[in-house]
Amino acid sequence: MLVFAGTAGGAGYGLTRAERGDLPLLATETDGRWDYPELTLPKLPHGAPEPLDSDANPAAVHHADLRELLLPLPEGGKADPEVAVEDGWVTPKEFAEVYAKDERDTVVQALTDDAVRHIAARAWVMPDGTRTRIYLLQFNTGALADHFYDQTLSDGVNGGRELAEAPATVLDESWPENTGIDGVDLYVYDEEKPYGERHARQAYVVAGDTVALILQAHEGGAAKVPFQQTLILQHQLLG
Taking 80 as the threshold, does the pLDDT of residue 232 lie above it? Predict the structure, then answer.
């Protein structure tokens, strides 16, 4: 079982393993990153293959409980009262509230058409007011997850579906799309200025049968380092 620490060690694991890809570096432990607990990949059911083992698991299914693949709250984080989460799950309609009002029906219909199985979610607020939301959307196969992202969420260099908090976003080209892991793709976006009430950063991770949305926002400006750290660690849990 893979274990990696949630601060310097956690980020470092993904950055020093060649197969994990050349993700942007976090400089030092005092660069503003958050203190996450030690992370452990959940145990798989007996006999279940790894999610990205293309020979044993051609559908690229994550067999672990999806909620156990969510990044835990960092030290100081409190559950966000703005986000309704029931036992770790949200409904398609609740997930769609992340997007602008005129986008929500399209997102819900696409989730129905692509037969989403589960949507796990975790949301928290830090003492400085930074809000983080992570959603994991699981489909029956990796092909369906790819289809949902490509046809419903993606828009090339733009952020695709308009977020409620960030009506205009652009691709952050400092992040590589190819993470170096077969079956995992990473798409990172930043809100265009002028910002709304809260500056939002967002990213999608497409890993086998699962699409992750990581959203971080703060009034005036969302710091880059905690967002990078959060994204790297969530990426590692899925890949």
Answer: yes
Residue 148 dihedral angles phi and psi, to the nearest 5° = -60, -45
Cα dihedral sign, 53-55-59-65:
negative
Q: 5, exposed or middle or buried, with CB in 10 Å at 0-12, 13-18, 19+?
A: middle
**Joined tokens for residue 3:** 């274990």
Residues in the chain: 239
pLDDT for 140 equals 97
Helix (H, G, I), strand (E, B) or coil at 127: coil
pLDDT tens figures, 175-225: 766 666 777 889 999 998 888 889 999 999 999 999 999 999 999 899 999
Specify the number of domains making up the chain.
1
Examine residue 226 and say whether the peptide bond preceding it is cis (omega within 30 degrees of 0): no
Cβ–Cβ under 8 Å, residues 60 and 51: yes
| Helices 224-238 & 8-16 angle (0-180, nearest 10) | 60
- Coil, strand, or helix at residue 202? strand
Greatest CA separation for the chain: 52
How many Cβ atoms from other residues are within 10 Å of residue 118's Cβ?
A: 16
Least confident of 29-33, 39-43, 76-80, 152-156: 29-33
Range of the domain at 216: 3-238
